[in-house]
Amino acid sequence: KNQVEQSPQSLIILEGKNCTLQCNYTVSPFSNLRWYKQDTGRGPVSLTIMTFSENTKSNGRYTATLDADTKQSSLHITASQLSDSASYICVVSSSYSSASKIIFGSGTRLSIRP
Amino acid sequence: DAGVTQSPTHLIKTRGQHVTLRCSPISGHKSVSWYQQVLGQGPQFIFQYYEKEERGRGNFPDRFSARQFPNYSSELNVNALLLGDSALYLCASSLEGLGSYEQYFGPGTRLTVT
Known about the structure:
heterodimer; A: mainly beta; six-stranded mixed sheet; five-stranded antiparallel sheet; 0% helix; B: mainly beta; seven-stranded mixed sheet; four-stranded antiparallel sheet; 11 strands; 50% strand
């Protein structure tokens, strides 16, 4: 069964601290993995996208890693800011022939405290 | 340059009714995907359309249907509404249908079924 599991479910850290969010997937065949940031009541905004051959990608203070062998990804946030408070969602796409399937994780709810 | 637009922003319907949600992709984008996001959970993939053809379908009943028009805009239709259909419905557009193309999300339509 195609699944994307994220941990932790929620996380509270102090402003300025670093944190790492985890994503494990069982989606096959694998096409790409994306991390999104979603503010409450808004649509998700893309942070990074990685294909099978990529194992790390950065976007400012966000760094995503991908281990395609163990089917794990992480999102590391450096020097957190209050505006980082949001849900972070891991999304894995599976493409085969002319069809595609997109599976979202349930997200990690991150709260940054001053 | 306009992003993905969705209408209406909010909608209240009663059980058994029908609803039509609309999405206009970013200019030049040929693919539109629809997602359902229940409060507190990650989005669930409903459909992907590319060049007016269905290219992906999630695990949703036949009450859910969609189509893409020649101008690449899209409609999501839901028949015989149930209370459980209450959710944020997100539309995302991308340049092409498959592969590692970036997806851009609209603000969503909040559907409440009473």
